[in-house]
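Q: Could you fold this chain for me?
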Amino acid sequence: MYKKYPEIMLTDKSGKREYGARQLIDITQPAFLFFAERIIKNIVTCSSSFSNVIGYQLDNETKHFNTSSKNVYISFEKYLKDKYGDNLEKLNYDYGLDYWSNRINSWEDFPPINSTINGSLGAAFEKFQRLIVTKYLNWQSTIVEKYKKRVNL
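A: Sure. Below is the predicted structure, expressed as structure tokens.
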């Protein structure tokens, strides 16, 4: 999969990770999600009719692994836009952007997160990364619910 879709590899502060170690995939990347959904659907569809299958475990050891690809940045900015709208003064105040010389006067000025020394903005990004994992697990749960067979116990 990596050879055909190298974009699925995790990007973190050190850059684009190379294939080899475990769990170096970007759980927000569309190609990865496409194939993950197919796998989940097939596993659930094939196994749900067995009486000894009583449940499903969602992804194992799931965390964000410091993912910070371009699509994660775009999603983080959208998350903040949804929270602050056009009130950039409040955004600047809440995250101390004036103090850290990161003041933004438009969304196009939003600073890169991987190089920030701003603790509050960095913490907000870390919170967002955890929300990505929650969203990913909820997405998996929805697929399982859709394809599992209902059995009366």
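A (continued): Residues 97 and 103 are 5 Å apart (CA to CA).
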